[in-house]
Amino acid sequence: MEWRKFLEEWVEQRSEVLPSRIDSVQTSGPTSRRAFLSDTGLGFGSLALAALLQREGYARSGVWSPPDGRPHFTPRAKNVIWLFMNGGVSQMESFDPKPMLNRYAGKTIAETPYADAQDPEKLAIERLFVPDANGNQRNKLYGLQVGYRRHGNSGIEVSDWFPHIARHVDKLAIVRSMWTTDSNHGAQTQFHSGRHMNDGDYPTLGAWVHYGLGSLNDNLPQFISMGRREYWIRRDGHYLGPAHDAVPLRIDPKNPLDFGRPEIPLPGGSEVIGADLIRQLNQIRQANHPGDAALDARIASYELAFRMQQSIPEVVNVSRETQQTQSLYGLDQEHCREFGMQLLVSRRLVERGVRFIQIQHGGGGAGVWDAHGNLKANHSKNSLAVDQPIGGLLEDLDRRGLLDETLVVFATEFGRTPGSQGATGRDHHIFGFNIWMAGGGLKRGVVHGATDEIGFHAVEHRHYVTDVHATILHQLGLDSRQLEIPGRKRLEIDHGRPIDQIIA
Length: 504
Fold this sequence. Notes:
By secondary structure, the protein is α/β, with parallel strands linked by helices. It contains 17 helices and 15 strands. Helix 2 (18-26) crosses helix 3 (30-38) and helix 11 runs antiparallel to helix 12 (293-316). It has a single domain, classed as Alkaline Phosphatase, subunit A (3-Layer(aba) Sandwich), CATH 3.40.720.
């Protein structure tokens, strides 16, 4: 029997029987009825659907009501594009060049003026022995592996490995005085959530934003993750509920959502038929029980989930972008095509109202930026992969008038030690490193904070990683204390403080 005809006849035969059967399910309690409805999705994306249901307040696992989606005060930004460089980018060879390393390259700390330091607060005792964050002695200073120069009207120094980003230095707010405490790559969790990976399941910043703000587009998820996220970062759903976890997105027009297709193969066109069938069943139920708000919300959620299956493939298909735009992101160059595709799709998602887009560059294990040996080859290769796409993103957002309302963040879990590891590498470094942000109501072309002359310690306006979170939440109009969940008080350092000096 032809598939559509079979379904239509089945609906007609069941039109009188089904309401009573649903009523019989209802007698076992509201949860069972909701379970029945939520478990008959015909392959609709479970994570996306859960997010929609949670926002409506009808998810089975919900224990508390989420915020109403309104900001706590007037926001300066609407969206965030979070670019995370996994492994630890060297602060000295990126956005905080240190020429003194060249002057004293190959010398031990005893052979430099630092051995006579009299200011223990500015030059802490650890630096006198130049250990890395794990306590290993890195006694010989390692010279810069690339040149640098001043750029823009601001005259900010940027490494020669990032020429495309450097062209937009007058758009950046660079913070050169970051610090953290986890000396290994669990620091990735610490940067995303503010807590150590062994502290338990704490939400990442993107999850808090998703939890605190309503949707700008009900056809798309509001928290998207691209690239590989290690298990120690994927913890949002344990604390805030699965509705607020990131929706993973693959930049593949043929299969952008792993869970966005039916679990079993179905005949051609059957997804539309299935949606029609569910709509007819829901209409039967509504006719027999008018005014059921819970059912009305669930019906709307299924329809939204189906629309998401239609909208995501359109977003990741960049073929309609001009050749000039595609080239701007480096899609015509093999070395940066993958990352460039992710950033171009991010701009398209921002245009369509997605709140928080998290992109992991080089995720997997320690991360590709982890340069314990041959730092020059490592960083030159990785910067080549990300520099032009990021520069293109900044230019594209700005010319479209989107940068004013979009926060772009460039971050990494820690920096790298000024002392050499082996002959050609740098080890992990938590005492001072840099990040930058752009757009979203921040000042342009500014540097805030400083490390000492060799890039070891953050010595001016020091900022723990949650200060970055607090700044972003502030620009989105959110107060983290008003997002606290009853019975789950957070430490003061978990909240952080907005970096007021870079806010316009």
